[in-house]
Amino acid sequence: MADEAKARGNTAFSAGRFEEAIGHFSEAIELAPTNHVLYSNRSAAYASLNRYAEALADARKTVELKPDWAKGYSRLGAAYLGLGSADEAVAAYEKGLGLDPSNVALKSGLADARAAAARSRAPPPGASPFGKIFQGPDLWAKLTADPTTRGYLQQPDFIKMIQDVQKNPDSINLYLSDQRMMQVLGVLLNVKMRAPTNEMERDFPEPEPAKPQQEPAKKAPEPEPEPEPVEVSEEEKEARERKAEAQKEKEAGNMAYKKKDFETAIQHYTRAIELDDGDISFLTNRAAVYLETGKYEDCIKDCDKAVERGRELHSDFKMIARALTRKGTALVKLAKCSKDFEPAIETFQKALTEHRNPDTLKKLNDAERAKKELEQQEYFNPKIADEEREKGNDLFKQQKYPEAVKHYTEAIRRNPEDPRVYSNRAACYTKLGAMPEGLKDAEKCIELDPSFSKGYTRKGAIQFFMKEYDKALETYQEGLKHDPNNQELMDGVRRCVEQINKTNRGEISPEELKERQAKAMQDPEIQNILSDPIMRQVLIDFQENPRAAQEHLKNPQVMHKIQKLVSAGIVQMR
């Protein structure tokens, strides 16, 4: 149960519905109060809404439950930074890096925290010329309205950047290298800014480019004494050579992939994996080739290895998310029934918890839609539908209407294209007094088969019981177009005309007239007629200028509208 609530929270978070995500994570925490990941996820959701106090409380709980988990300190640092406690944020990020020195998110957070701490200790410089534009009350409204900046509002670091500039306008110089800040200035100053030419990250099937070999950083020369050359062991030298060779194999694999020489690409990626097992991109690239060539089982195996190895190496979350997304894609390709989509959907949800990627979210939505469609197809069975309909008919004859409704509903699920079942269930709803539900079924019956007379008699009868005699009359008349000799339809027309004439002659009680008028006033068509300036003038002429009123009645459209008002009891002809 907790995992299900967590999955729903992850899906809501990935779609940007942070309040909903908080609700699901809270539900999961009630079921599993010692699960540190749940507090971490809810902390991220709170931070996305700038509710940093709550984010801090959850982050503290995360590190309390799992003090050796580096990601918890990333949450803690982000919460402190959001609250303006830069020094505490620095300490949190440094503690996390002590557990995972290669963690990219912690490194980036530490750099932001140190910059914020430095700004808080720096003496106040001169006033910034941009200070006023960030203090206006319509700042957030402008950023929300402009399509170039609207998407940034979902990014916590962007919100923090703007809030920082609001607190200290002179700090804008620290962010001018950020293209998002340039877009913000363009929107606030009403100046057209040149858009960046960022290349979108591709998830599949393009493999990742090879990483250049990193050379050891050169030490600054010291005046004295002359530094001794660093001795490199043979093992370390050999390891570096193997890494360099692995990168070359990856480059060769990428070139072969682009040429669609998939077998050669697989050979190069396999060789790279043998040379260096510390880079999971070799596995994800080979998985991309397997996916392209239809070897879905091999793709899944490589993705599982990449995720497992990535966890051990504390690899970038984006790389792990990419492996999970490719696995989910392969599972979708293998799916033959609705249940086969469940592991694919679960895998996409896990990928989104690692990294929010629009392509992964689209794949998740497509998989959920395909699963639902297959479920409907698998459940479709006209033979069982007929059996359920007959059971419903027997119960209807026994006046067991609620039980009959259950069987008719099952028949519809088994065969949603049979108009007879909707007609029968509409009759049940009428007997139970559930007129809106019966009317909906009668309309669906007519939609499926416009020539089915029973649908019109059901719909007309319900409208008659609802005292909507004008609408019932139209329904019966429409049915007679398809079946001119249907006695039930002709009787319905006669009953409606009798009721309308009674109203015109004033032969109904004031209470009934008032009820009919009140119901008619809720009809959008009646409302439109009464709000029409021309019709208002026509009604005035009926009272004050009978000769002009007679001229109006020569207009077929006006005559039709007057008849609608008369049938509804709004206007009485004497």
From TrEMBL:
Residues 199-255 are annotated as: Disordered. TPR repeats lie at residues 2-35, 36-69, 70-103, 246-279, 385-418, 419-452, 453-486. GO terms for molecular function: Hsp90 protein binding. Keywords: Acetylation, Chaperone, Cytoplasm, Nucleus, Phosphoprotein, Repeat, Stress response, TPR repeat. Its main location: cytoplasm. It comes from the Eukaryota. SMART domains: STI1, TPR. Residues 136-175, 523-562 form the STI1 domain. One of its GO terms (cellular component) is nucleus. Gene3D superfamilies: 1.10.260.100, Tetratricopeptide repeat domain. This is Hsp70-Hsp90 organizing protein.
